[in-house]
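#onboarding

Welcome to the new folks! Below is a worked example of what a typical request in this channel looks like: someone posts a single protein sequence, and someone else replies with the predicted structure as tokens. Don't worry about understanding the tokens yet, we'll cover that in week two.

Example request:
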Amino acid sequence: MRLWSLHPEVLDRQGLIAGWREALLAQAVLLGRTRGYTRHPQLERFRSHPDPGTAIGAYLSELHADATRRGYRFDVGRIAFPLGPDRDASWRMEVTTGQLAFEWDHLQRKLRQRSPDHVRPRPASIPAHPMFVVVDGPIATWERP
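Example response:
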């Protein structure tokens, strides 16, 4: 399971589709709808949020928005708690610059294999998923490099 902290716009088609499926699985785990993956480290940051259901809903809503911009038809009805029009900041979470750098490099390695035309050099400011507020810091403690 990989729940990218990167902005969905930097993912290739396969990454966006896999991210959607994996985030739906994460939603099922966080809402107690499945017994698998309950201890997956990628879920630690969502579990630490005061409202994990809202947090994963925000994550999925942004994936859905990017997919829609690209012309894909992801079923928004599968999001248990989609972001509403008010979009208050209660769903925001932090991500560190070190985590974004790690994920950027990890994604570029994947892209070299499956979508070489999507490979990009690391930008000065790595775009984060819109639900994250970027702060200075190392790779997240839940990451398994």
